[in-house]
Amino acid sequence: MADVARLAGVSAQTVSRVSNGYPGVTEETRRQVLAAMKELGYRPNSAARALKRGEFRTIGVITFSLSTTGNVRTLEAIANSAAAEGYAVTLLPVAVPTQDEVRGAFTRLEELAVDAVIVIMEVHLLDAATVQLPPHVQVVVVDSDAGDRYTVVDTDQHGGTRAAVRHLLDLGHRTVWHLAGPEDSFAAQRRTDAWRAALTEAGRELPPPVRGDWSAESGYRAGLELAALEDCTAVFAANDQMALGLLRALHEHGRRVPQDVSVVGFDDIPEASSFLPPLTTLHQDFAEVGRLCVRAVLRKMRQEGPERGTTLVPARLVLRESTAPPPAGR
């Protein structure tokens, strides 16, 4: 820093203000300092800056799966939003969602020097009293039913699902079958509960749900069951990947979509508009979820935000060509 100050003809304090992005430096002086830094190959010492400031400008992210569309796109949104705020992201995947693994993950993140943690939970873990997050760490949780204990950000699974079911019933279908996600998934359970509630409130028959594991292959296997049911004219799939497998199964059984069976998905993945037919689905605003997660965790770090509570991001129904009124007489 002294070498940069000498070359630029300024004080070491001015060099510090420029390298840290502080105001109070004229544009001409800032250019002189930056030019001297470039000429000398100077880079600020991030470790020293962290010790001085008491923060590392890094957010840790714990996730239990990188195989699902929702988790990957949420992680991408968090990383982009954090970068926009000048923070880096340290990712720590956890193979098994247990108390010991969660505790170990927080210990490792503390060793890696992070200022706060975002947990992409997905599975029913924080809902159980057996799992507690360290009280001294600023934490925001994505995709959980633990808003009574933590700060939670999630898509409005309930509202989105109800919109999908109402759309199919309004088209004239007598009931809506459900291709559900895995039982240990919070999001899948929320969507199943909302599907069941919407049909019950409408006074419609409640068919037994069939389950997949979020993959297109599992949607295909479950779809073979649904395709064999002549009275099945409408299906709400818990995600777009399973809807893709369902479309294949229906095609192989000669069930036309949407003339014979209507299909609605959830997520609105980029490929959904290229399905055959283009898929009607619920759009999840992953970018907004990521932005709100980062905003919430930064507010907690600055002691400006609430300790607990849930923020829901609306899911929007996107109408394409996979839904239509049921066949005559059905």
From TrEMBL:
Gene3D superfamilies (UniProt xref): 3.40.50.2300, lambda repressor-like DNA-binding domains
CDD domains: HTH_LacI, PBP1_LacI
Domain HTH lacI-type: 1-53
InterPro entries documented for this protein: HTH_LacI, LacI/GalR-like_sensor, Lambda_DNA-bd_dom_sf, Peripla_BP_I
GO molecular function: DNA-binding transcription factor activity; transcription cis-regulatory region binding
Pfam families reported in the protein's UniProt record: LacI, Peripla_BP_3
Keyword Isomerase among UniProt keywords: no
Record keyword DNA-binding present: yes
Entry keywords, A to Z: DNA-binding, Transcription, Transcription regulation
Name by which UniProt lists this protein: LacI family DNA-binding transcriptional regulator
